[in-house]
């Protein structure tokens, strides 16, 4: 493997985008109440306003606000009650000067009324009259037509990952289905003679498999559909056959481990063979994550990737390239970030970009980024981090108190 011929993150991303143009996620229509986690493939416009009628925000009495001017406990305003509105029933009356109507929370406000007095500030004077002890301003406790959603408004933008709140918006508009991107399918293969399942007590020289579990969860969090997760010993032919079979069924096939220069490492050769020599990336100018390999199988329109065996390096490369690629192809926004001050000097890596995990601290309304140190084989460094920062490959490093951009982990 020629690790000297490495790609920057930017050039690797460009190669992956170009290769996957023919494998853009398909658009499918799903029922709105089953769309959780999908990415919207078309803008959704409101065909009607929400609410479609003026509603009360409180239990109280709909009034003309001018009628309540000067009302107090010592000098209440007396108003005639002309209607009692029920929930789910339209108001048929109107409020004129000197009158009012009872309206429950969410009920329809009668014509003529422009505010609602809370029930707590009112008292029945007699059977047909109300004493109001508190003045209300115009529009108080009233939700206007279209105040939540205007007719014709862009309510959910293409590329939005659908959450419970988006499903609620669709329900409010009577949208029963939505056009979404069909998630890419992914198979994860973890390789290594030293790997044993989590439920097995490792013998000397053995370690519990981390990567297949962590990468599966990472794929699911970003919206990919995990088809299979398998663990193999370092048997080149067995692994190659598993990759071929996986490429027949999945859009993405991830091999974790076997991408560095160990004598049993065959990932580079396998990816070359299964993609007919179409290896796109033979290493990244990145710390950690240099021994990463990406190839595109044109015959199957599938991407094969060899990630480092160290868990932190594998997860960071997955985040920076696989997750990034899927978000880009489904028009999702880039992940959130914020600016913070460094708590310490941090050196870069000559000729390589450095992806440094950090935890965020808040002091006096300002955020600080504290490096989370640890080797790329130590998974707990990830659990201690809130995000990461990037030090460019031509950057010597960052200094204490320097402002840096921290990207949140997916």
Description:
The model has no long low-confidence stretch (mean pLDDT 94). β9 and β10 form a beta hairpin. The chain has a six-stranded mixed beta sheet with strand order 8-5-7-6-10-9, with no helix packed on it. The protein has a six-stranded mixed beta sheet with strand order 17-14-18-22-21-19, with helices on both faces. It has a five-stranded mixed barrel with strand order 23-26-25-27-29. 40% of the residues are buried. α4 crosses α5. It contains seven helices and 29 strands. The chain is α+β, with helices and mostly antiparallel strands and 410 residues long. It folds into four domains: 164 residues, Molybdenum Cofactor Biosythetic Enzyme, Chain A (3-Layer(aba) Sandwich); 53 residues, Alpha-Beta Complex (Molybdopterin biosynthesis moea protein, domain 2), CATH 3.90.105; 89 residues, Molybdopterin biosynthesis moeA protein, domain 3; 72 residues, Beta Barrel (Beta-clip). The radius of gyration is 30 Å and the shape is elongated.
Anisotropy-based shape: elongated
Please identify which CATH superfamily of the largest domain we are dealing with.
Answer: MoaB/Mog-like domain
Largest sheet: 6 strands, mixed
Broad structural category: alpha+beta
Low-confidence stretches: none
**CATH architecture classification name of the largest domain:** 3-Layer(aba) Sandwich
Radius of gyration (CA) equals: 30 Å
């Amino acid at each position: 493997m020629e690790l000297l011929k490495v790609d920057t993150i930017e050039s690797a991303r460009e190669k992956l985008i170009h290769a996957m143009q023919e494998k853009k996620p398909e658009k499918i229509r799903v029922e709105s109440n089953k769309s959780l986690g999908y990415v919207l493939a078309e803008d959704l416009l409101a065909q009607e306003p929400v609410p479609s009628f003026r509603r009360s925000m409180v239990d109280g009495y709909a009034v003309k606000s001018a009628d309540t001017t000067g009302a107090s406990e010592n000098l209440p305003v007396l108003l005639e009650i002309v209607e009692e509105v029920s929930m789910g029933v339209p108001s048929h009356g109107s409020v004129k000067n000197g009158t009012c109507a009872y309206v429950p929370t969410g009920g329809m406000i009668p014509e003529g009324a422009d505010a609602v007095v809370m029930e707590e500030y009112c008292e029945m004077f007699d059977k047909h009259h109300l004493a109001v002890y508190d003045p209300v301003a115009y529009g108080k406790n009233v939700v206007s037509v279209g105040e939540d959603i205007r007719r014709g408004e862009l309510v959910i933008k293409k590329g939005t990952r659908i959450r419970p709140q988006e499903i609620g918006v669709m329900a409010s508009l009577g949208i029963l289905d939505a056009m979404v991107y069909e998630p890419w399918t992914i198979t994860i293969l973890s390789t290594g003679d030293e790997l044993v399942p989590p439920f097995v007590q490792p013998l000397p020289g053995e370690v519990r498999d981390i990567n297949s579990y962590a990468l599966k969860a990472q794929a699911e969090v970003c919206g990919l559909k995990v088809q299979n997760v398998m663990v193999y010993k370092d048997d080149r032919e067995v692994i190659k056959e598993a990759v071929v079979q996986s490429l027949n069924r999945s859009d993405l096939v991830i091999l974790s481990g076997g991408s560095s220069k160990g004598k049993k490492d065959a990932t580079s050769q396998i990816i070359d063979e299964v993609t007919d020599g179409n290896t796109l990336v033979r290493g990244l100018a990145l710390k950690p994550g240099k021994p990463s390999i990406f190839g595109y199988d044109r015959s199957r329109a599938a991407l094969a990737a060899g990630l480092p065996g160290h868990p932190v390096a594998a997860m960071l490369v997955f985040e920076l390239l696989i997750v990034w690629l899927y978000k880009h192809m489904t028009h999702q926004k880039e992940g959130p970030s914020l600016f913070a001050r460094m708590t310490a000097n941090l050196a870069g890596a000559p000729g390589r970009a450095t992806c440094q995990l950090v935890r965020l601290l808040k002091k006096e309304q300002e955020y600080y980024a504290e490096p989370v140190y640890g080797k790329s084989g130590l998974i707990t460094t990830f659990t201690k981090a809130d995000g990461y920062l990037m030090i460019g490959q031509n950057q010597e490093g960052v200094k204490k108190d320097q402002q840096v951009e921290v990207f949140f982990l997916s």
